Amino acid sequence: MQTAPPVRRRTTRPRADALRNRERIVTAAREMFVEHGPDVPLDEIARRAGVGNATVYRNFPDRDALVREVVCSVMDRTARAAEEAIAEGGDAFSALERFVHTAAEERISALCPMISSTFDQHHPDLESARLRVERLVADVMDRAKEAGQLRVDVGVGDLMIVIAQLSRPPAGLECLSVDRYVHRHLQLFLDGLRAPARSEDLPGASVTLEDLRKS
């Protein structure tokens, strides 16, 4: 007796247009969170993305899910910037500079109010993204320290705080109106990180990302 061949189950993959719509929603949400904060209406995000409200809710059942996706996407892009800086090789401090300027373009300052919101900050996706960023940024910084080009009393948290602060507009100013100053001020900061340092000791201790999460 011959047995029937096993039935192959067909796995359903998201259609290309569905993936594009999801990406457009996340991109639009990121832009609008930067411009208007995390409480921007989802209807406005749908309009910016060029999709219907139903498409937004089909991909993200609630605001928390969308905010989490935006935070993870920014962290992932920041991690890729660190990977690219490492892969390009060459001068260790130049790699650090490339990372800092690229990370600033991601507007990580916009993550601060979102991370402090009500959604689950310990979601596995968020934890994984955080650890990846911390490991890669530490790698970029360690290479510069080992080359004697970066002062040793600076931590990953120090660097990320300054990127966030210098890419955030002063109170009362439109976010996008100060873009032309961001990279100028970041370079001034980076010049101050070079070793040998002008000041022997910095006040306090170097900051880690774990310190920031506890504060």
UniProtKB/TrEMBL annotation:
Point out the DNA-binding stretch(es).
41-60
Q: Which UniProt keywords apply?
A: DNA-binding, Transcription, Transcription regulation
Keyword Electron transport assigned: no
Looking at the record, the residues that make up the HTH tetR-type domain are 19-78
Q: Which Pfam families does this chain map to?
A: TetR_C_43 (PF21597), TetR_N (PF00440)
Record bears the keyword Transcription: yes
Q: Output the superkingdom of the source species.
A: Bacteria
InterPro entries annotated for this entry?
Homeodomain-like_sf, HTH-type_TetR-like_transc_reg, HTH_TetR, Tet_transcr_reg_TetR-rel_C_sf, TetR_SbtR-like_C
Kindly give the PROSITE patterns that the UniProt entry links to this protein. HTH_TETR_2
- Give the protein's recorded name: TetR/AcrR family transcriptional regulator
Taxonomically, what lineage is the organism?
Bacteria, Bacillati, Actinomycetota, Actinomycetes, Kitasatosporales
